[in-house]
Every structure is written in structure tokens, then in C-alpha cells.
Amino acid sequence: MQRGLVRPDVCATDAELIASAHYGLEASAIELGSNQDRNYLLTSSDGTKHVLRIDNEVFTDDARDGQHAALDAYRSAGVPVASVLPGLDDALTQRWNGFAARLSEFAEGEPLVDAGYLAPGVIREFGALAAASVNALRSVQHPGLDRDHMWDMRVAHRETHALAPSIADEGLRERILGAADAAWQAVAPLAETLPVQTIHGDLTDDNVMGRRGDDSRLHPHTVLDLGDLAYGWRVAELSVTLSSLLHHEPSRPLRVIEAIEEFHQDAALSAAEARAVWPLTVLRAALLVASGHRQLEIDGENDYARERIAGEQAIFDAATAVPLEVATELVLASLGYQGVAVGAELKLVAAPPTALPAAGADAGPLRALLPGLVGEVAVIDLGVESELLDAGTWLLPDAEERLVEQAFREGAAAVVLPYGVYRLTRGEMNSVDEPKTWSLNSEIFLPDPTPLQVCAPVPATVESIWPRGVVLEAAHGWRLVISGFFPDVASGDIVAAGAHLGHLAGDTSLHGLTVGWRRGDAWAGEITPLAQATAQGERGGVQAGQRLGTSLTTPSLVPAWRRFTYDPAAILGLESHTQRDESADEQLRRERIFASAQERYYERPMQIERGWQHHLIDTTGRTYVDMVNNVAGLGHGHPGVADAVNRQIRVLNTNSRFLYRELAEYSERLLAKLPAGSGLDTVLLVNSGSEAVDLALRLAQAATGRKTVVALREAYHGWTMASDGVTTSAFDNPYALSSRPDWVHIADVPNRFRGTYRGAAEDRSVAARYAADLSVDLDRLADEGRDVAGFICESVLGNAGGVLLPGGYLAEVYRLVREAGGLCIADEVQVGFGRMGSSFWGFEQSGVMPDIITIAKPMGNGFPIGGVITSKEIADGLASQGQFFASTGGNPLSCRVGMAVLDAMENEGLQANAERVGKRLIAGFTKLAERHELIGPIHGEGLYLGVELVRDRETMEPATAEANAICERLRELGVIVLTTSERSNVLKVKPPLCLTEESADFVVAQLDRVLTEGW
Ligand SMILES: Cc1ncc(COP(=O)(O)O)c(C=O)c1O
Fold it and tell me: Considering the entire predicted model, what is its pTM?
């Protein structure tokens, strides 16, 4: 077997000669990269492309025939391949100067190796392709495939050792060999049981040509380069593919597990194969690095090899970033394999033993461990939904200690922070990566001084001791790790349940014990922090008041750690609080009961169960910057609103036909928000924006005695019959334009960026032209006897992504409508209420005053409140239609909430914040637009912004699929932003008004990252 091969001595001119002489092709040749062969791209004068491959001399004709058989097998299985084309003499292999040359079809597409980020769906497709490959090749047999070659994973360990001397850097060499040895140690016991068949052997992002899908992502498509085709382990096909995916996001290597899941669905992996996948991925990575260094050593001019070394190193670093055992357990968990490895088998293990009654379990919580404990035990919930962590207290650096102290003050004798809870207290704001939130131990806190004795809760053998802890070996291979006390036992001691282990010192203030079950060796690294802490002083080095703390893991690793660890609740005499991510179950549950027409965000939604300010937090403690919740204008979880609800609902909540102070008080506060001299003096309160719009339309019709309402195209105003009547957005409802009721007239949308008339903000002629068209419409309506009752529009085109109306448009249109005897309705449900920053109302941007204003969303910060503001004269028109009454509209509770919202907006200066942070966002997005062509116009004011994504700034072709994919990726990076507009190509930015500059910068940085890396 040869290691490190020099490429055939053939140049581009030779390639052109071969093309002409053997294939009748007059073409120009450009060399493509290869480690050991020569590949040329041939372009004929008519533009037709082919690839000419000159094999390394090690390849035999037999091997080539084997490859041709494999191509046939791929084709009949429907796997796209680039076929080998016959020469002028009909032979597939041509001879030139002793070399074997073959011509292949050119696979159209984009190389996947150059793609930055790969979306989860794309990663899955790689898994499916690897499965399709092994399925297609299963019965391909050919003598030429039974060949020795260095990329055969069966010999990868040996090969890595053989090549490693070429790695000059000793540290790197040791790392490579160490990882290869560990991987081989994991694979060797399984080797005999791993199925062998024909495999492609190099099914990487380099050898699969990508095609752009409708979703704008690059998807794996055509299988190329069968140079490594041979018999090999079936699972190696997958590992090679996986390793090639790792460099696309090296910081998150475990994302590629999705490819394993997909492979498993189509080509079920045995338990042994599942255990071999990750070690083989590591081994492949080690071999790649070693071989890359060797290649350069012997063929220093191979630029291709030189360029690739960084990528190969990234693959290795990613593959080894997670301990081998953890990655393997995660693979097993994701494929649904239970049990622990015994040789090549997986055997189910019993749960760890529970505390025996003899050891005091019956005597109450913690008594099996601490029999001398007297008093109550408090268990503190640090989970995402814990009521103890409201009002942002979870962000305090000592949040956990405060809760423990509080429990002591309330009389607890011991306090437990349980195992297996996703701790909100460990959540991190503005973070790209998921934090370590899931606790691997139960922590027990005891007040000072507590010189209690610590006993063995289960029978065990003392495996090891440290100055401040023990590892006990208990039944079924489980070890109980107890730390934070002075052991009086020695390694090797056999202890019965209830036997004395040691004692707590009298200086235990706020750092009691940590207790956890462990299995296997993957947890060994955890001991280090403890050992370090204890190495410092005579009595263990831990100072009074210092907390040992617990080990935690990230949500993605929980499925693995659940297999190494176990909840110690049973030996502590406590209930289990272990949590798991239930978002997938919750999604299924919701789909069962939710109407299909009801919308949902995200391809795979996270389960959000807490919000705080402008952050949303999922059930695993991962936080996201929330850029879409304009309803929570003040921010999530606002204590002022919570207090208002709590207080008022205990005192009074009745309907507005009774007399109570809150109704007038709130209405007056709303009226006070209007510009001076508005002429509007009447408020009608309802529960939502749709109701407000519905009522506004009724008011206009009642007050004018007319029916016709003019609405703008591409608008959304609500879901009730009337508000839906003026909802003209064909994105929300594809039939919108053809199915409007006869009382609705649709006018052109004055979008100066992509509408009928376009122009600069200061170009007044744009507005004039839209207004002139509307004037024609109004005349025609009058001629048809359909005099206009009202005109409704958003004062800033919210549904379009915050597009500001052309200067002068609203003033002129209001004038025309009023001249025609109609009323002007401003829908401020989205854009009003301080969001514009520079003005409280959207209509103020246009210097106009409407006759009727609709408001809702942020009025109650999530509590359902809507309203209409108008003049008494207009409102009185309603009397012609009988009484008006809404059961919960304007009740004391909603009025109190409404006032709490106004108070907070004023006290917290939120409108000013919207102006300041909005400007910063606009500046950030504008800067990004200089570097990213995809960014078109940036719309809006304050904190109602839209980043319009276009494929071409001239044609404004909407980048709808890209926008969706970008939102999906941003979510992975901790940002919630979604699309809006008729073309769904605008990133809508309408966060709670408390958005900070820090979070705004974070969002801009992440958008930059996504636009740079791809989506
Ligand atoms: C401009 C506008 N008007 C009215 C509504 C309807 O409000 P609601 O959903 O509270 O019924 C919406 C909702 O998105 C809206 O954006």
C-alpha cells in the first residue's frame, strides 16, 4: 500500500490533447484540485463542459471497471451521478502516455465544500445521501473493489500512525495520535461485527455537487469522484460524510448527528455501527490531517493540499471537541439505543439502588445521607418557569445563593437544588451559544454551623477519596459521587447502608454537599475542579461561604448525560424534578388541536415558557433576543403590569355599564396622548385590534350614512368579518383581492420603493401621483353611487415592514376623502403608541390628524385591550345602530392594566429609547448593506423597522426564501426575527421598546454573521 502519492505528470495542454485525440473534443482545460490524481475541467467552444480525470498509477483497470459498475448501480437507484463517457473507440478508459484517462459529464451546480453554514435540513440530506449510497452499492461486487488503499477505515488507525511523522509540530502530532488511539480503542472491539460492502468511501462535501433549492439553500445533489470506491465498512460511508460536514460550523460539531438520524432511517445502523460512527469520524479526521501533512511533504507544490490543511484541522478540532464517550452516547440516544456497552453488545442496566429503609430513607428527606438532620428540607425550583425567579431576579449573579439564604431565613434546615433541572439562573443574555443549564448533581445546602455526620445511603465500596469527597461504587456499575465533606473512610472500604462516611465541618456556610450518580468514565473530567478546589488548604481548601457548585451541561448534551448520570432523588428521599426538552411533543400536541389555518413560527419551534424584557427564554434556559413582540411593548414579564392585574382583579372587575372610576381615568389618559387641538374627545374600549378596526368601520358608516370604505392594497387590519373585509394582503389571504365585500374599494399601496410610483423620500411628486389616482377612484365611486364613508390605512405601512408613506401622501389623501364626505381612519394598532420614537402616533409622521384612530396591541402589554378614539359627533352616530357594549372592553381590570402600561412607558422613557436604539439599529443595518448585496431598502422609524431583502436592488426581486432561511439561522444564533410584507421578504424589527443598545448591536452582528456565512 502506498501512502502519499504524487499526482500523474500531466498538464493542462496534455489534457487538451487527450480530449481532442480520444474524445474528439476541442476544448480548453483548467486544472481542478485533487490530492493524488489529476482532474481537468474541459470547456468546448460551444460552452459544453466535461471533466477529464487522469488516475494515479495505483488504480488498476479492474478498479476502474468496478467504478463503472457502481455508477450503473447509482443510476438505477436514482442517485444522481456524473457518468463516464466513452472515447472515440467506445472504451470508457483511454490510455495516454501510460496513464488512464476518463471523461465524465460535468455536474452542474455549486460546490458544497465552499458553502459556509449548512442548515439542519441540508445536513439531514447528506445523511440520506450516504444511506442512498450504501443502499445502491449493497450488491455491487467486483474484483477491482477488493483493493488495499489508505482511506479504507479498517486500516485508518495504522495509516494515521504511519503518516503522523510528517506532522512537524510535536504537540499536534501527539493530539492526532492520541485521538486516533482512543477512537481505535472504541472501534476495535466492534470491528468484527461491522458490515462490509462496496462503499463510495469519499462521499464528502467535496465530492457532492450542490444545487440551489427553492428555499435558497444549497442541497447535496450529484455524487462525484469514485476514486476511493472499494469494499469497506458500511458505517464508514457515513463517518466520512460526517467528518466533511464538521468544518461548516466547527463550534457545533454535534449538529451533524442529524445526518446520522437520517441515515439510520433509510439504512438502519446496528448498535455496533452506531457506536462506531463517532470514533470513525474522529479517526477519519485524524487521518485527513496526517495525510495532508504527508502530502505536502512529498508534493510541496500541491496548492490544493496546502489550502485544505486548515479545513482538515478544523474538522479534527470539531470532531474531538466533545469527549468521544459523550458524542457516542448522544448518537445512541438519538437513534433510540438503550443500554451500556459490554464488548460488542449493548446491555440494559438497572437503575442505581435506592436508599434502604434501614439507612433512614423512611425517616424523611436527606435522612439517609444526613441522619442527624433536624427540621424541614426545602427544594428550590430554579427552572425556567419558577415563580421564585420573576422580575428578572434570575439575572443576579448570586441569584441561587439568595434563594438558598431566603429559604434558610424561612426556617429550612437544609435546602436542595435538584439534579436535572434546566436552571434559568444559568441562562445568558445576548448569547450565540446555548449555556450550560442542566445540573448533573443535586446540591444540598446546610446553614452554618452544621457538624453533621454523612452516611452511606446505599451499600457500596469506597472507590476513591479526596480531601472533600468520595466516590462510592454501588450496585449495577453505578458510582455515587458525594463531595463537600471530610471523609473518614479509605479507598477499598466496604460500607453498609447507613454506615458512617465522614462529617461536615462547622464552616459549611452555604456550601453543603453535591450528590450525583455516575456511570462510565465520561464524567471523569468533572472531578478536576473539585480536586483543584480541595488542593488549596489543609482542610480541603474550601473557604467558609465558598460554594463548590455543581457541574452542568448544555441542553444539546443532556440526552448523553442522562445516560451517564441518574437523579439522586430516590436516595435523598425526594421527588424527582428531572426535566427534558419536550418541545417536539408539545408541537405534536398543538398540531392535534390547532386549526391548520393558524400560523406557527419556525420549522422546528423551541418551547418558550418565559419572557423577560426584550428576551424570550425556552424551556432549556436558552435565551433569545426578541425582535418581534411589539405587543409586549414594555417588555415581557413587566412587574408593573403584573401588579396592576393582581391588585385590580382581587378588588373589582365588572363591565362598563356600571359606574367606576377607572374607565374615565384611562380614557382621559389616552386622550391626553393626542396632539394638541386634535378635536378627538371620545374613547370606546374593546379587546383587540380587530375589534377596534371593526368598530371604527361601523362608526364611519354610521356617522356618514354611507357604506363604501377605501382600503389600501397589501394591508392587514384584522380577522373579524369587517376588519377582514379591509384586509387586502394577498400574502395573508391569496383570495384577498378577488373576494372583498362590495362595500370595500381597494386603492393602490403608496410604496415608494416598489410600488407603481417610486422615488426618493423628498420627492413630493410620488405622493401626488398616488393621491391623483385615489382622487380618480373617489370620483368614480361617487359616479357609481358608492359615496365613500371612510378611508382606512396604517399611518406607516406596518404590514409592508414599516414603509414610511411618501411625503405629503396622507395629507393630500385625507383632504380628498374629507372633500368627498368621508372620514379618515388611522390604524395605529401596530405603529402607534410610542413605537415611532420621534412621535407617539404614526400619523404624526405625516403631520395629519385622523377622524378615527384604532389602537390595540401594546396597550395592555399582552393583556387584551383595544380601543377607538374619535370625536363625540362621530361616536354618537352609533346610536342609530342601537346600543354599543363589549362585555370585557374597558372593564376596571383592563383600564388598570392600560394605565400601568402608560405609567411604565413614561417612567421608563420607552419612546425616547425607541428613538435612540432605533437609530442605532438603522445605522447598523445601513452599514451591513454596504457589504451585503442582499439588503435592499431599510424601512421605518424608531423601533418599527424593516430590512427588505432583495436579489437585485434594481429589479427589487424579493429574496423571500432567503429571508425565511436567514430567520431560521438567526434563531439558532439567539435572535428571534421574522418576515413580513406581501412578499415575505422583509425582516420585521418591532421589538419591545426596552430593547437595549447591547442587544441591538448583538442582533446586527448576528445578521452580519448569517449574511457572511450563508444560511
Ligand atoms: C395594523 C393592524 N390592525 C389590526 C390588527 C388586528 O389586531 P388583533 O390581532 O389584536 O385583532 C393587526 C394585527 O396584526 C394589525 O397589524
Answer: 0.94
